[in-house]
Amino acid sequence: MTSAHRDTFTADHLPSKERWPDLIFTRPEFQYAAKLNCASRLLDRHVSDGNGGRRCILAPDVVWTYADLQRKANQIAHVLVSDMCVQPGNRVLLRAPNTPMLAACWFAVMKAGAVAVSTMPLYRQGELRYMIEKAHIRHALCDLRLGDELASAVAETANFQTMYFDNDVNASSANPDSLETRMALQPETFINVDTAAEDVALIGFTSGTTGKAKATMHFHRDIMAICDAFPASVLKASPDYLFCGSPPLAFTFGVGGLLLFPLSIGAATLLLEKASPEPLMQAIAEYKVNVVFTSPIAYRAMTALADKYDISSLRKAVSAGETLPLPIWEAFYKRTGVRIIDGIGSTEMLHIFIASPEERIRPGSTGQVVPGYEARVVDEAGDEVAPGIIGRLAVRGPTGCRYLDDERQTRYVQDGWNLTGDAYRMDEDRYFWYIARADDMIISAGYNISGPEVEEALLAHPDVKECAVVSKPDPVHSTNIVKAFVVLNDIALGEAPGARTGNDTPAAGGSNAHSNTPEVGGGSAAKEERGAELIEFVKSRIASYKAPREIEFVAALPRTETGKVQRFRLRSLSP
Questions:
Q1: What is the DSSP letter of 29?
Q2: Fewer beta carbons below 10 Å: N end or C end of the chain?
Q3: Confidence check: pLDDT of 391 > 50
Q4: Does the predicted TM-score (pTM) go above 0.85?
């Protein structure tokens, strides 16, 4: 197929075809034309079908219809082409919180045939500089409030163009050089670039939970494939639904769940700049949200707030980014009656490829493979293992990993399969059960221990707000021990209650609990007592050899902006 890209950087830096994963398009919904611009399918068709008046993008004090979004995206596309000289294939950095203007900018980049590279609002100049250099970016659309870090990042980059836009999405800026002012001078119609289905549309950077972020390249066809997979087969939302959630649009979980999926079915989305658990619950109650996308730790906090807000409008809840512990699933369901759809996806695969609709959920399981994808559990040689055996998760389907100029391509893709880096087991009914990240499996005294299993046991304790479990070397015994980092609930952060009791010397070797923060009160003896209590609690729920040998109380866990725990940083604290 003939590419529309004049700038061939992305095509030139794709892995060679023999290093791609196998791609599967056997189902009819994944049969795409050779020419495809995802903006035409996701946005323009609703207007041409007579549905331009339907609500599309909401924010506090903002309601845009499909026609409004199309008009603004068309004008921004003209600014990109006419004022910034963006050519098809150029990469355009997008920097903003979740706002209607960011959505319009994203679609404008698609319409212009360029490549969107969205960035997390909290990224600093070093992170931005890395992305700009990696993807050879020379154009940016940036929220004025986030301009300082970007300006610092590109201070020494020649010929870099940045167009800023203001926070007032309903009015033109007084700044003659602002995006809003330039938009007002442009036509409201735009002829989309006739991109090929395999032209790169976006570059998504991984969240950096294991170190240096990788750049993943996705085609216009990939964007449509994820819209024709999980939303249709698992989510099953209706066009009259309102979506909302916490992940940034720069995160593939966010751009899928909060922009692509609702627009693919003609629904609406509510974009919030700040979507921590309480503001999210407030928004669900105020706007009558029907579908929410957020993280496991957020669902835990939302459960505690459920009696405070009327969230009876909520019909669907989706969790991804990290494994969903069973206690969180059970508590949310008991309090709200909503069965959280757990799912696993990856930036490399673009979105969720294993999940089950509500009627087929098995609590504690990630679910079954999303129709259109295939998944299996394999051993180190790449051979499929029997049901019940733990191995590496391998998946393939209509999307797959294509790193931008990265030697790690051959680690992620082997024999045509995408190896996600997760340890799983599959049962006789082909439900997949998460064990751990492959590099988070703990081998202690000959036992294989799943860190998430220990975390799930700890989270069942009422005093534990969040936790992370890692392996710590034990040079004395030439093995590893299980170490837990624990954040206590606010009610547990004062003086340790003197009435608490527990074994001072557990069979597993005693608690070596300590703290590197002042938030946990009570002194070292009280912390030892509390740590010992938690260890005994874990032993009451899972085998004693899996219980932590050490517990360290901390004020917070290190997380990426997407909410994933950076366990590699915790391991560095446990030499």
A1: G
A2: C
A3: yes
A4: no
